[in-house]
UniProtKB/TrEMBL annotation:
Record-linked InterPro entries: GPCR_Rhodpsn, GPCR_Rhodpsn_7TM, LPA_rcpt, LPA_rcpt_EDG2
Name this protein carries in UniProt: G-protein coupled receptors family 1 profile domain-containing protein
Source species of the chain: Mola mola (Ocean sunfish)
Subcellular location: Cell membrane; Cell surface; Endosome
G-protein coupled receptors family 1 profile domain: residues covered: 53-298
Gene3D superfamilies to which the protein is assigned, alphabetical: Rhodopsin 7-helix transmembrane proteins (1.20.1070.10)
C-alpha cells in the first residue's frame, strides 16, 4: 500500500511500484490495450520456443558421448542460461503491462533480477568459451585437457557470479532514496547501475571479439604451415568448423544484445533526446530471440548434433544407436580420427590376409 511516511528521511520504501513509474515518467496503464495483448502473445510464443529448443540442446549433449568435452559442457551451460532466460522472460510476460502496478517492490526486483542473471550467465559462459578456445587452439589441441570436475567448478562459479550481479540492485544499488537518479526504462534502478552494467557487458563483448579475432588469425597462419597429411588436414578442418560455430554463437549474441545495452546506457546517461522507451520493447524481444538462435546454429553447423536432435524428437533409440557409429561428425577429436583411420587400416589388412589364405 502506498503511504506518505518514509522509513528514513529522503527514502520511499513504503511507496508502490506505480509511484516510481510516475516519478520517472514511464507511463503505466491500468487496463489492457491491444498492444499489450500483442506483446504478451508474441512474448509467450518466443518463450515456449526458447525453452523447448534449449532443452533439446541440453538433452543432445547429455545423450551423445561425442559431446562429452569441456567445450560442449560450456555450450550446454550456455543453453541452460538461454533456458533460464526463456523462463525469466515468461515470468516477465505474466508480470507486465497492467499487471505491473499490482507488483510489490520485492516482486518487481525479482522480475528484473531474473533477466539480469540470465544475461550475466550467458556473457560469462561466452567468456569462458573464449578462454577455453584460446587455450586449446594455441596449444594445438582440439579439446581442452581440463578435467570434468574443473569444468563444473567453473560452471558453478559462473552461476554464483550471475546470481550476485542480478541481486546487486536489490542489495542497495537502487534509487529508492534518490528519485532524481531513477532510470526511465527500469524506474527503481539507479541510472549509475545501468551505466555500470551496460559498459561492463559491452566491454566484455569487445574483449571476446578481440580474443576470437586473434584466434582466427593464428589458426589461419598455422594452417598454412601444416603439411597436406590427411590427419592434419582433418584436424585443421575440425578446428575451423568448431571455431566458426562458436564465433557464430558469439556474433549473434552480440548483435541481439548490443542494441538493448546501448539503449540502457543512453537511459543511464540521461539522453532525453533518445526516446529510449520507444525502442525498449523491440530491444527486449530481439535480445530474447537470441536464446533460440543457438539451437538453429547447432543444427546447421553440426550433423551429429542435428541427428541427435532428430533421435530425441523421434524417440528412436535403436535407430540412434545404429547411426551413432556411422554418423559424419564435424567436431570430432583428433584421437578419434586417428583411431578411425587405424581401425580402417586394420579391417583392410584383415580382409587382405583372409584373401591370401
Amino acid at each position: 500500500m502506498d503511504t506518505l511516511s518514509d522509513d528514513t528521511e529522503g527514502c520511499y520504501f513504503n511507496r508502490t511500484v506505480k509511484f516510481f513509474y510516475e516519478a520517472s515518467g514511464k507511463n503505466i496503464s491500468d487496463h489492457w490495450r491491444r498492444r499489450d495483448y500483442v506483446i504478451v502473445t508474441l512474448g509467450m510464443s518466443v518463450c515456449f520456443i526458447v525453452i523447448f529448443s534449449n532443452l533439446l540442446v541440453i538433452g543432445a549433449i547429455l545423450k551423445n558421448r561425442r559431446f562429452h568435452f569441456p567445450i560442449y559442457y560450456l555450450l550446454g551451460n550456455l543453453a541452460l542460461a538461454d533456458l533460464f532466460s526463456g523462463v525469466s522472460y515468461l515470468h516477465l510476460m505474466f508480470h507486465t503491462g497492467p499487471w505491473t502496478i499490482k507488483l510489490s517492490k520485492h516482486q518487481w526486483f525479482v522480475r528484473q533480477a531474473l533477466i539480469d542473471t540470465s544475461l550475466t550467465a550467458s556473457v560469462l559462459n561466452l567468456l569462458a568459451v573464449a578462454v577455453e578456445r584460446h587455450q586449446t587452439i594455441f596449444n594445438m589441441q582440439l579439446h581442452s585437457k581440463m578435467s570434468t570436475r574443473r569444468v563444473f567448478v567453473i560452471i558453478v562459479f559462473i552461476w554464483l557470479v550471475a546470481i550476485i550481479m542480478g541481486l546487486v540492485p536489490t542489495m542497495g544499488w537502487h534509487c529508492l532514496c534518490n528519485l532524481e537518479n531513477c532510470s526511465t526504462m527500469a524506474p527503481m534502478y539507479s541510472r549509475s547501475y545501468l551505466v555500470f552494467w551496460a559498459i561492463l557487458n559491452l566491454l566484455t563483448f569487445t574483449i571476446m571479439l578481440a580474443v576470437y579475432t586473434r584466434i582466427f588469425v593464428y589458426v589461419r597462419r598455422k594452417s598454412k604451415q601444416m603439411s597436406q597429411h590427411t590427419t592434419q588436414m582433418r584436424h585443421r578442418e575440425t578446428v575451423m568448423n568448431l571455431m566458426k560455430t562458436v564465433s557464430l554463437i558469439l556474433g549473434c549474441f552480440v548483435l541481439c544484445w548490443t542494441p538493448g545495452l546501448v539503449v540502457l546506457l543512453l537511459d543511464g546517461l540521461r539522453c532525453d533526446m533518445c526516446k529510449v522507451l520507444r525502442y525498449e520493447k523491440y530491444c527486449l524481444v530481439l535480445a530474447e530471440c537470441n536464446s533460440f538462435v543457438n539451437p538453429i546454429i547447432y543444427s546447421f553447423r553440426d550433423r551429429d548434433m542435428r541427428r541427435t536432435f532428430r533421435d530425441i524428437l523421434c524417440c528412436l533409440c535403436r535407430r540412434g544407436g545404429n547411426n551413432q557409429g556411422n554418423s559424419e561428425v564435424h567436431f570430432n577429436t583428433l584421437e578419434h580420427e586417428v583411431l578411425s583411420e587405424s581401425n580402417g587400416a586394420d579391417v583392410s589388412n584383415h580382409h587382405h590376409n583372409n584373401h591370401s589364405h
